[in-house]
Design brief:
Layout lengths: L3 E8 L8 E9 L3 E6 L1 H8 L20 H5 L11 H8 L9 H8 L8 E7 L6 E5 L3 H4 L11 E6 L10 E5 L2 E5 L17 E10 L1 E10 L1
Antiparallel strand pairs: 1-2, 1-4, 2-3, 5-10, 6-7, 6-9, 7-8, 9-10
């Protein structure tokens, strides 16, 4: 798992809302995984309705017990009948199904019941591959036929972006589709963009392009 650094907990109020980084999980070989809140992110998110995780109620505390056990409850159970399609979608090796840290990073811990995401700060190691959805699609309101599964996309850094100095835009030819998610975009500042490939993995359309998952490969 050399490709996974810290994992950041993000939250947003709903579709199209601003994404706030409210916490971070850090893993080391001495004492496992620790979790702490990021105070500035929590402060800003609270104005949008965010509340602290029930199991981690103290903003000033660094938690070292039951971190993966708590967050791991979000993950699909290995005995589920649809586990094979889940593995195929996220392109996960079955050997990592019991590795909660890996699974949170590579599936973002997504559930249909809340607006939390776990965003890994990836390292550009040989063979890196991860799947993420494109940020900013809701505001773009692009036609449903803008993308097709299998399309090859390109990346462009936006160093002058007023909201994120690490912003990386995603294009299909000359059409801007959206952005690489915050935190995920850091890996593209550690290695030249031409070394990465970007391919459309899955789409959710309803008159317009609602969501697009893409595979990033190094």
């Amino acid at each position: 798992m050399r490709e996974i650094g810290n994992i950041y907990l993000s939250w947003k109020r709903g579709a199209g809302g601003r994404r706030y980084i409210v916490g971070v999980l850090k893993k080391n070989s001495v004492d496992g995984v620790r979790f702490r809140y990021i105070k500035d992110g929590v402060r800003d998110a609270k104005a949008e309705g965010f509340s602290l995780y029930t199991e981690f109620p103290e903003i000033d505390k660094e938690y070292s017990k039951n971190v993966l056990e708590t967050f791991g409850q979000r993950l699909i159970k290995a005995e589920r009948s649809d586990i094979s399609s889940f593995i195929d979608f996220w392109e996960i090796s079955p050997k990592y199904l019991d590795d909660t840290y890996y699974m949170l990073a590579h599936t973002m811990g997504l559930t249909p019941t809340d607006n939390f995401e776990f965003l890994a700060n990836y390292h550009p190691v040989k063979g890196l591959r991860f799947i993420s959805d494109i940020a900013g699609l809701t505001s773009q309101k692009l036609p449903a036929n803008t993308l097709s599964v299998g399309d090859k996309l390109t990346l462009r850094k936006e160093d002058t972006n007023p909201y994120d100095k690490r912003a990386v835009a995603i294009f299909k030819e000359e059409t801007k589709i959206g952005y690489v998610k915050v935190i995920h975009n850091r890996v593209f500042h550690k290695r030249d963009l031409q070394h990465f490939s970007v391919e459309v993995k899955a789409l959710d359309v309803n008159g317009v392009l609602k969501k697009a998952f893409v595979k990033f490969s190094l």
